[in-house]
Amino acid sequence: MLVLLGSISTFSSPWRGNNGSGDRLVCCGKTAADGTGYRLQTHVWRGFTAYCRLPEAGNDSGWQSMSGARELAAGFDIQKLTADFYDDPFRYYRALREHDPVKRLPDGSYFLTRYADVLAVYKDIKTFSSDKKAEFKPKYGDSPLYAHHTGSLVFNDPPLHTRVRRLIMGAITQRAVADMAPGLITLVDGLLDAMARKQAAGSQIDLIEDFASAIPIEIIGNLLGVPRAERGSLRGWSLAILGALEPALSPEQLRRGNDAVRDFLAYLEGLVAERTTHPLDPDHDVLTRLIAGEAGGEKLSHTELLQNCIFILNAGHETTTNLIGNGLVVLTQWPREKARLAAEPALIKTAVEEVLRFESSNQLGNRISTCDTVVGGVAMGPGTRIHVCIGGANRDPAQFADPDRFDITRTPNRHLAFASGPHQCVGNHLARLEGETAIGRFLARFPGYRLAGAPVRGGRARFRGFLGVPARLSP
What we know:
With 475 residues, the chain is of the alpha+beta class. It has 18 helices and 18 strands. The protein is 47% helix and 14% strand.
């Protein structure tokens, strides 16, 4: 039996067919207005032949049996992820969204993958708490990691969240971020020059080590006034501390995370003492502002101050590194979009928004219910732990047309990469500026760049990025 699914210019997603024996075939794809970015693929399956239009470079799994998707959803456990999940979590998210969007996990927690459900949880901070003391106590025990994560902005509710957020926002207003642009351009251009020299000398370029990770370290180092000669340990500390937020941890991950918190705190004691004696401009130096507090307002305790300095580094470093690295890799996987952006650099703002949606740096968040509630039609009691899947929500076809297509002109694009509500990322304007400047100027300088080997994933579920990306630069 031969079935031709319309013309290339009219086929849309999703399409489901039946070969007469009760088996179902799912073939996903949707036409862009100009027909670019797709390839025609033929599937022959149990006597059923179909032509499917799929995104170029295999960025979508294209089709899978309905029974296979149900099996993925039924067997999903965030505590027992298989190796293939880290390479492509999106097929798992798709299966969950279609077959079990409010998934009860074996440990009694729930995993949300629909955009509407994730957004509703983010918006309602009274019903869904960010306080992690009850959740983190059995995970970390009485340890430096427990003290840090339960004392930082992101894992707290008002009033601590409100006090710290207000102080940080005062130093990274949109005006302050705009003032950073000239220095950021100088930094990026310097890194581009250094990579060109390195390649000319015969050395291998790594887009993460040589470029993506170097930018936020310098920016956050500047915000906190960390002397440039003392910034070498910051990335290692950040990776170890954030790595300990994974759903399932090894003893080695716990040890590295606790060691990193101890070392970072010891360093900050000296930095805070020096800044207390010699304050800088509080309109631009976050540490000075946190030390001083608001005029006539409550100050942070010494412990709150130190823990939130660690948070600022971690929040500003890892996710922005991933944004830049993910963006440069995904452009190589969608060459027509890469060529389009190179030809029309004014599209960089919408391109970065699409990177944030398509390959969200932060894939998962967590909340705990404070009372009886209902999420996505499922009743939950107080104390229920909830995983909000940002990566799944940002690929929800109910919110985003053709969600598995990378489209640098996508509008509107109300993604949840920076969360939403009162806990929306306080540094989102700065992260966007860094992403736009880094990716835009890199592509302008090296529009012919290509990967020189397989990128190495970070192997983490919560934070999606790369540890290494070998590349060859070309104008």
